[in-house]
Write a structure and sequence with these properties.
Layout lengths: L1 E5 L5 E10 L3 E4 H6 L6 H8 L3 E4 L6 H16 L8 E5 L10 H9 L5 E5 L5 H15 L4 E9 L9 H4 L4 E11 L4 E9 L7 E2 L12 H5 L6 E2 L2 H21 L10 E2 L6 H11 L10 H4 L5 H12 L8 E8 L3 E8 L1
Parallel strand pairs: 5-6, 5-7, 12-13
Antiparallel strand pairs: 1-9, 2-8, 3-4, 7-8, 9-14, 10-11, 13-14
Helix pairs in contact: 3-4, 8-9
Length: 338
């Protein structure tokens, strides 16, 4: 299945503000070695590009991280939380199954006039949430929308499984959107999914297939995130990344080499090195955070975009492509003229 949103009028969807937050605690590869995990810094860096990741405090939930990122985005946008009509949170690690992380975030921000809900699309969640919020703005049913992608992934992993626990980190990113004629413009967004291969990245615990929690479900490890067929997933992810990058550029009559920045879901550094060679795009045009933050699922692309914006890396008029890929299977992209 595929869905696309493109510019439909002179007024288009603009990014008014960006924000991000990562927890203070740093967990390095050396720390994992010291925990007794059968791995090494060299092994992890060679296979993933990750050197360290952030870990939320035991008292921090997903909405707490989202709140900090959102306040930064709102401040930059120059509006208050009470101006918001819509809050969409992308996450696979909500504070609670009910209410949603979006509801918790709405309350924390004091966004009394906003409707809030969650979107679940694994590592593709930020682009899915952008696309969903765009529909409300284009329909005229919302004036200001907040999109936040936030995750506490370190609570979903088995710390004895070196194939998965080395990958994930915690954090949140956010953007404030509105229709307008100035500021970074979302030129297009595209969504894709293939439910037939959804079990390749699986977290059964907590869903209706595995509730209520029991000694049996815990003993079976059903409450841990499980990455199945990692090698095959790597190849599929690369193919999907390349597809959406090509499609995003082609939609503007361009080729991938015309893109100024690629800010991808931070899945694996080797993927981006392969794509760089295949498209003849210098690695300097890929904005990379995986070495410092690991894979933050839906939040990784949002965090990278906000950090790049806050650091002044993105210049007016530049074309920025945000390709994503995640469990579901889900993938997609957004193209922004900064």
């Amino acid at each position: 299945m595929s869905l696309k949103t493109s510019r439909v009028s002179q007024k288009s969807i603009r990014i008014l503000g960006t924000g991000y937050h990562v927890p203070e605690k740093v967990l390095t590869n050396k720390d994992l070695e010291d925990m007794g995990l059968d791995t090494s810094n060299e092994w992890i860096v060679q296979r993933t590009g990750i050197r360290e990741r952030r870990v939320a405090d035991k008292n921090e939930a997903t909405s707490h991280l989202a709140c900090r990122a959102s306040r930064m985005a709102l401040e930059q946008a120059g509006i208050s939380a009470k101006d918001l009509d819509l809050i969409v949170v992308a996450t696979v690690t909500p504070d609670t199954c009910c209410p949603s992380a979006g509801n918790w975030l709405e309350a924390a921000l004091g966004a009394d006039n906003a409707v809030s809900f969650d979107v679940t699309a694994a590592c593709s969640g930020f682009i899915y949430a952008l696309n969903v919020a765009s529909q409300y703005l284009l329909a005229g049913t919302a004036k200001y929308a907040l999109v936040s992608a936030a995750e506490v992934m370190t609570r979903t992993v088995n710390w004895k499984d070196r194939s998965t626990c080395i990958l994930w980190g915690d954090g949140a990113g956010a953007v404030v959107l509105a229709l307008g004629e100035s500021g970074p413009e979302i030129l297009s967004s595209a969504l894709h999914s293939d439910g037939k291969n959804g079990s390749d990245l699986l977290l059964p615990g907590g869903g209706s297939r595995t509730t209520p929690i029991s000694h049996e479900s815990v003993d079976k490890g059903l409450h841990y995130l499980d990455l199945i067929n990692a090698d095959q997933s790597f190849r599929v992810a690369v193919r999907c990344f390349m597809q959406v990058i090509s499609d995003a550029a082609a939609g503007q009559g361009l080729t991938p080499t015309d893109l100024d920045w690629i800010i991808p879901h931070q899945a694996n550094l080797r993927m981006f090195q392969y794509i760089s060679k295949a498209f003849h795009i210098p690695m300097e045009r890929f904005y990379i955070t995986i070495d410092r933050f690991g894979n933050i699922s839906s939040a990784s692309c949002a965090v990278a975009l906000a950090e790049a914006a806050q650091k002044g890396c993105l210049k007016t008029g530049q074309l920025v492509c945000l390709p994503v890929f995640g469990g579901g299977l889900t993938w997609g992209s957004a193209l922004i003229r900064w």
